[in-house]
Amino acid sequence: MRILLAEDEKELSRALCAVLQHQGYETDAAYNGEAALELALSRSYDCMVFDIMMPKLDGVTAVRRIRDSGIVTPVIMLTAKAEVDDRVEGLDAGADDYLTKPFAMKELLARLRSMTRRSKAFTPTRLSLGSVTLNTEEQELIGSNSIRLAKKETKLMETLLLNPGRALSTRDLLTRVWPDEPDAEDGLVWIYISYLRQKLAAIGADVEIVGEKGQSFTLLKK
Amino acid sequence: MKTDSIYGAYNEVLPQVMRTLTDKVIQFNWERVQSTGHPIYEHFNYRVKSEDSMREKCTRRGLPQTPESALLELKDSIGLRIITNFVDDIYKTAAFIRDLPNVTVITEKDYIKNVKPNGYRSYHMILQLEAPYEDIMGNNPGKWYAEVQLRTIAMDSWAALEHEMKYKKSIANSRMIESELKRVADELASCDVSMQTIRDLIREDEN
Prior knowledge:
- By secondary structure, chain A is α/β, with parallel strands linked by helices.
- Chain A has helices at residues 10-22, 33-42, 59-68, 84-93, 105-122, 151-162, 170-177, 186-202, and strands at 2-6, 26-30, 47-51, 75-79, 97-100, 126-129, 132-135, 140-142, 146-148, 168-169, 207-210, 216-221.
- Chain A has 2 domains: 2-122, Rossmann fold; 126-221, Arc Repressor Mutant, subunit A (Orthogonal Bundle), CATH 1.10.10.10.
- In chain A, 32% of the residues are buried.
- By secondary structure, chain B is of the alpha+beta class.
- In chain B, 48% of the residues lie in helices and 20% in strands.
- The relative contact order of chain B is 0.13.
């Protein structure tokens, strides 16, 4: 995981980088807004931390330019004072979260974990368990063979793969896979679970969906 | 003229040998209709491989155009193709054929579970039939080979399309067509499995 840290106070930046590296993150430090923007546009990061008050280019403007260029990497803003306007401006510019200085290192680390976790859940097009891979983009389920899935089958399989080993109730699945169909019945979940079971068998999968009609379903390795 | 046949003196008995097997398959289907109300297959085609095809295949395989090549080396002088509505019916029919008296399975290839890289799906069996006609080795009852291909309607349509593309010499964007054929094969397989699932659910409710 690579983090961009844009912070002009060198002592603070060094201390933050040391802790982040200790936690296993790779870090790039920029000491002004221009340098930070240049890095953000040229390298790929998992999360970026921007101080608002910086020389050459302020954090809010830098973040706005980053967003304008189409980069959706999560950004946490560091605001010097607890000014509501500062926070609003930062969030409106495209930041995802903010921390008010002074902050506890523990909290910054927790927010970084939260941000990177979320971005990971939003972006993957390939999900795997055992020998089975789902390519959500192509709606393709791959084992020793491959087979195409319908849209709702893909969504259901994705939900199961994002929650391996977890029991998901028929209700849960109904609201997650068919959010726009309030009239959808429990039987719909059952028939789609049945489709997926046979399709998993058809590709020689080493994972299975356990659970009974109308109850909870869990994706497990055989 | 008979002696001109690549099958030699056996040209005449081949259709009769074939009938010993096809009669049983037809009988099996009839019994299924009687007992369940549903046929086991949708179409059933069979043929003795034509003179031209057999000669062409011998040449392609580097074999002399002789009755030995046609009846012993190559094992598809008799060919059956059974086309079903549902995937399960393929396995049920294969099991029926496997258990027939006077039939020995030489090889079985399940290209439904082990799909060919291009997307081809089908179930292939090479059989040795024992039939009351003297064979080329002088045995009576004789031993004869037959090939059986079992597939669903969807797999069959796909195979027909793929065959057409394979024998067209130059197709623009042939790589794109190949990858589209593969995608479509997987989509058809998905429909086959979905239809099987729905049928199973309906039958479960009936019971």
